[in-house]
């Protein structure tokens, strides 16, 4: 399970850290505005993180304790082999707010039961898988259904909007969320019905669809606790 948006140059990264909204209102560049827009998409997407709904275990720690654990994960990442942490570092360099919003360290600590090294490795693996699925030009962009600079290709978004995969409104008898695949709609979606599209098309529409589903699931506290 995955625990669980815009090209950014060095100036745009600095803009994000210094308060992008103020810079945009005072006449920032078009590229800077795009970066800020993508951060908003990451926060406001239908599958975004709800900061008012703390995830499993987090409520048992003080804010200081939680921040200390997260800092330890950051330190552990820095000690991993370069090839393991490269995708994470590239994503963070390009779009730090997207990394923070769509893969918060707290989520990985939850799934790994606060094991610092396991959380560090799992977070880096998440970004490596995301790079493999979306490609270098797209993987750091928000997984928003509505942003013009989303990481999702048009085929994957079309499949999502088609209703071929939908979460059921109620969990199963064990309290687990259920995701339903409508095989009829799935077969009627040409870019997904051809099994060859999973690996051999450049846009990897089926892989992106599956990744989006897992991302959406990972952002729900009940899934972190009980699975799906």
List descriptors.
single chain, 228 residues, mainly alpha, two-stranded antiparallel ribbon, 3% strand, globular, disordered N terminus
Order of helices and strands: HHHHHHHHEEHHHHH
Strand portion: under 5%
Q: In what order do the strands lie side by side in the largest sheet?
A: 1-2
Name the quaternary structure.
single chain
> What is the averaged pLDDT score?
75
Tally of alpha and pi helices: 13
Categorize the overall geometry.
Answer: globular
Structural class: mainly alpha
Distance between the termini: 9 Å
Biggest sheet layout: 2 strands, antiparallel
How many runs of DSSP E, i.e. beta strands?
Answer: 2
Backbone CA Rg:
18 Å
Helical percent range? Answer: 55-70%
Poorly predicted parts: 1-36, 43-58, 195-202
Structure commentary:
It is a single chain. With 228 residues, this protein is mainly alpha-helical. 60% of the residues lie in helices and 3% in strands. It is built from 13 helices and two strands, in the order ααααααααββααααα. The protein has helices at 10-25, 30-44, 63-79, 82-94, 96-102, 105-111, 116-134, 154-162, 183-187, 190-193, 197-200, 205-218, 221-226, and strands at 165-167, 179-181. It has a two-stranded antiparallel sheet with strand order 1-2. The longest helix is centred in the middle third of the chain and has 19 residues, at 116-134. Mean pLDDT is 75; it is low at 1-36, 43-58 and 195-202.
Entry summary:
The protein is mainly α and 228 residues long. It contains 13 helices and 2 strands, in the order ααααααααββααααα. A two-stranded antiparallel sheet has the order 1-2.
């Amino acid at each position: 399970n995955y625990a669980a948006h815009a090209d950014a140059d060095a100036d745009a990264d600095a803009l994000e850290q210094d308060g992008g909204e103020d810079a945009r209102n005072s006449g920032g560049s078009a590229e800077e505005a795009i970066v800020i827009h993508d951060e908003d998409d990451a926060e406001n997407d239908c599958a975004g993180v709800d900061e008012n709904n703390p995830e499993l275990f987090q409520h048992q720690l003080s804010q200081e304790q939680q921040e200390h654990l997260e800092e330890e994960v950051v330190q552990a990442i820095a000690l991993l082999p370069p090839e393991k942490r490269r995708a994470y570092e590239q994503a963070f360099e390009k779009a730090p707010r997207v990394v923070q919003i769509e893969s918060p360290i707290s989520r990985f600590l939850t799934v790994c039961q606060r094991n610092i090294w396991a959380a560090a490795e799992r977070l880096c693996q998440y970004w490596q898988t995301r790079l493999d699925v979306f490609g270098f030009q797209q993987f750091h962009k928000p997984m928003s259904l509505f942003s013009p600079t989303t990481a999702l290709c048009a085929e994957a978004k079309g499949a999502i909007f088609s209703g071929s995969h939908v979460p059921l409104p109620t969990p199963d008898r064990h309290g687990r969320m259920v995701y339903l695949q409508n095989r009829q709609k799935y077969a009627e979606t040409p870019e997904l019905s051809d099994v060859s599209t999973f690996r051999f098309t450049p846009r990897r529409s089926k892989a992106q669809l599956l990744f989006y589903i897992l991302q959406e699931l990972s952002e729900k506290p009940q899934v972190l606790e009980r699975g799906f």
